[in-house]
Amino acid sequence: MTMQQCPPEDSLERRIEAILNADTPPDGWKEALGKLFERYLDQQRLLDRLTHIADRFQAAERERSQGYMASYEKKVRQLEKIVRISDQYQTMLHQLKERLEHASNYDSLTGLPNRRYMTVRLEEAASQAARKNGNGFAVMIADIDHFKAVNDNFGHAAGDRQLKAVARALELSLREYDLCARWGGEEFLFLFPACDQTSAPVVAERLRKNVSAAPRISDNIATPTVSIGYTLHRPGESIDATLLRADEALYKAKDAGRNCAIGM
Amino acid sequence: MNNLEIAQTPSTPEVRADSGQGRVFMSGDSYPENPFDFFQPIIDWIDDFLKNDDRPLAFDLALIYLNTSSIRAMMDIFDRLEESHLAGRSVSVDWCYDPDNERVGELAEEFKEDCTFPFTIAPRS
Question: According to CATH, what is the number of the domain B4-123?
Fold first, then answer.
């Protein structure tokens, strides 16, 4: 763009000044005024052009920032979507983990805690008992009498139903802090916190009675009974020692004719 | 144009891209240690196919778990498909999932949300 530049000693400017200062218009005033008007129009055109260019620059700049804004907003939406989906995957994994955790700690047939879970809880109880007096607990083992006969005579499906029925009856005999686990095939293990030698036989007897009072799973299958061996954990001894004693007591109960509870 | 064959690993899905058939198959879990290294060849293959050809491109997906980088990569892939679709190309996605894991189907729905090309999600029969 070329700019019309006035020389510093502009003759037109001085002529106009002279005309303005004169009392009566001197010669050539009209020609000078014509030139001034021409110059005025040139300036006006230049100003229009400049304004137009400036406007276009501004518009371009606005478009550019709007473009940034749009792509920024798109990115934000994308990011939000990624986060949302990712969160859902996390939730999915978390639920899966809980399912697996449950599966590794619970018996799928009876829904009771399994041997693995019970072992951990027994160890905890034993170390608590060793730390503090009055944290004694009782351990009981209940074994379904003649369970093999149900399996042999009525099939494994019947055996499973019997196991579930006994598990339910045992579970219903528990207080909030008591724990019952499926220990093995037809064996259930109990942890009774704060259970002493006065209450242990009462509790064992309650378990035994509740099982024999359980609803029969079928008319031709006899109501199940359990033999129970129980013992109190002796603070300081290993949990294996306690379990061994409960097992011995269970054998004694079996020897004594089954459907009874014996403590040691 | 080459086919792409990536064997499944514990952390990456099986990927087969068949240029003759115009099909891409992806199945399994995806949480690659280096997501860029894993997905770039796949994205390159897709770009090549979409650029050098005008035949339809169909995706068979049986993806299960995706980590965040993999989600991003899949969104990139779907963005490309969407772009091609808007340009008139025939593209489609079939995502099938294990009916025991409904959540995977729900997640596929999330991916589908912004896609206007044919995108079906169905439990495996």
Answer: 3.30.750.24
